[in-house]
Design goal:
Bound molecules: zinc ion
Number of helices: 20
Order of helices and strands: HHHHHHHHHEEEHHHHHHHHHHH
Strand content: under 5%
Radius of gyration: 23 Å
Mean pLDDT: 95
Distance between the termini: 66 Å
Amino acid sequence: MTAYDALQEHIAALNDLLNVLNILKWDTRTQMPPGGSQTRGYQLATVSRLAREHFTSETTARLLDAAEKEIAGEDPDSYRVRAVQQTRQYYEIVRRIPADLLARRATLAPISEQVWHEAKQHNDFARFAPYLQQMLDLAREQAEAIGYEEHPFDALVFEYEPSMTAAKLQALFDALKAGLLPLLEQIVAHDRPLEKDLWAREYPLDRQRAFALEMAQRIGYDLERGRLDVAPHPFEISFTRHDVRITTRYDLHYWPMAFFGTLHEAGHALYEQNVDPALTRTALTTDFLGQYAVGGTSYGAHEASSRLWENLIGRSRAFWGAHFGRLREVFPEQLADADADLFYRAVNRVRPSLIRVEADEVTYNLHIMLRVEIEMGLLDGSLRVSDLPEVWRAKMKEYLGVVPETDSQGPLQDVHWSGGSFGSFPGYTVGNVMSAQLLDAARQQVSGLDDALTAGDYAPLLGWLTEHFYRHGRAYSADEILQRCTGRPLHVEPYLAYLRGKFSDLYGLQ
Ligand code: ZN
């Protein structure tokens, strides 16, 4: 056996352990009764410890040394070289994070998530605050262990978006705000209610589920290697490309929630399901830090895929031109007096609102900026946990002009912080920006792409994304992927041009 193969065999066992953790996490969030949270914490801690011991062992060091000698001089862009490089990079980082810190976080996370869930239900921020404080302290400890130059946020965002820092994000945010705020102002001034309120009607849940799943399959989600469940905070998770699961949640009246939630998570799933099969159980599909960007290269790259399918495709005029007829077959009474154009306008109405996951495309990034700024403040100590409800209200008023009446609609709305995830929010905005850059490139490189999309044929787009993006797994960074297939690193212009074009048309702006 070659040294490279010996290292891959060793990493394959790590990959198995990390996927066992993911199965436990999936179960925690979809099936587990509340009473199971404490023992689940022990289970997660034990498997995390085994994974860490396996990876930080002397065996890994020995196999890495040998593999590095063997691949010396090979093509630096080859999968072999990238696999060894990434194993080395994460080996050094993971060894810097103390085992007991990981064990404490793994034990606390499911309890904290359970308390968050109850606090959100009862609008009781004070109940959740001590758990948030503990999770924040653990995150600070982790940032110190990993190390950073300018801001503790840099160490944490690295886990999700390796090419991002607090300073780079601020520059990206500034460029976005300069484009978004004037656009939003114009839209709000031109907004008027639609002639019919489609969401005042009831959409039976079983038919919502069936249609959402039909469209998820239509864009390419493979149910032989997937399934759809219910979760209060929807997510996608994979245990190799052969088992890629999605979740959604339902509202009897507000049909868009379950549908676009499903399409979003299916967009994540397409990334995982289309990674090169040769990368299964290798370093290039191993999420060494145990986050959720499992087979993908970063959170932002993953969000680029989910947002491309949810928004750029799923909320397009072409999509509803192709599928509104089918939707009306599923909901004949509810949609008897609607047509594709009204429906397109109804699913793209821009209104500053309180809840991030229900935000439209224009206001969404403002919700993200608010969270990222709060995370940075909590991490560098300029904000305290007890300040959170008030700071939240102030920032909502400043960016969106609306203020939540309850903390459930404010700082308790998202699951992220309860599980100890700090640094993951920027990925949503990076993903939005990246999605437009990718679709632009696909349009230029695939002849007849728009005709195919108008006909409801997604195979050409999925094929292009697979060839240039999905199949590489974690071999190339988000910036490298963009450079390779669009000729430029991440930049905001295609995204701002997309939003300006779409919403100027929808709202009759100049
Ligand atoms: Zn997502």
